[in-house]
Design brief:
Elements lengths: L1 H9 L5 H20 L5 H22 L2 H9 L6 H5 L4 H18 L22 H7 L1
Helix pairs in contact: 2-3, 4-6
Length: about 140
């Protein structure tokens, strides 16, 4: 599996979603191999070490908002990916909330209200990017 993934990525520049899905594939294969009695115990132990290393990287990804957002916005997967891979419901809700909050704070275009303060400066609504930046 590792050779196949290496060859796959050597032919093009992968995007983050592809890397994440490849890590899932590697994890599933390593799990299957580590339980396969056809392999010697030493080989299964080595596979277990490789899986432990992969899980360390998974834990790092779990701390990244980008990871959740990339998968949640993936055109094919969206939030069904998290459910399909048996994430807990509160994790799926957190991923969705991260996408919504990031959109609101970073991409939502907010127009100034037609009012001006005494200095002639436009007043923005509470959902403006200014307030999102202050909240974070």
């Amino acid at each position: 599996i590792l050779k196949d993934i290496t060859l796959f990525f050597s032919y093009s520049t992968p995007n983050l979603a592809t890397v994440i899905l490849a890590m899932d594939l590697i994890n599933n294969k390593l799990t299957t191999y580590s339980l396969n009695q056809r392999f010697l115990p030493l080989i299964r132990a080595d596979i277990g070490l490789a899986k432990r290393t992969l899980n360390w990287y998974y834990q790092l990804m779990d701390t990244s908002e980008v990871y959740h957002i990339v998968i949640a916005l993936h055109l094919h997967h969206k939030l069904t990916y998290f459910r399909h891979t048996k994430w807990e419901d509160n994790w799926v809700e957190t991923a969705e909330a991260l996408v919504r909050e990031t959109y609101k704070c970073s991409y939502l275009v907010v127009s100034p209200v037609d009012l001006e303060n005494d200095d002639g400066i436009a007043i923005f609504s509470e959902s403006s990017l200014l307030f999102c930046a202050l909240a974070n």
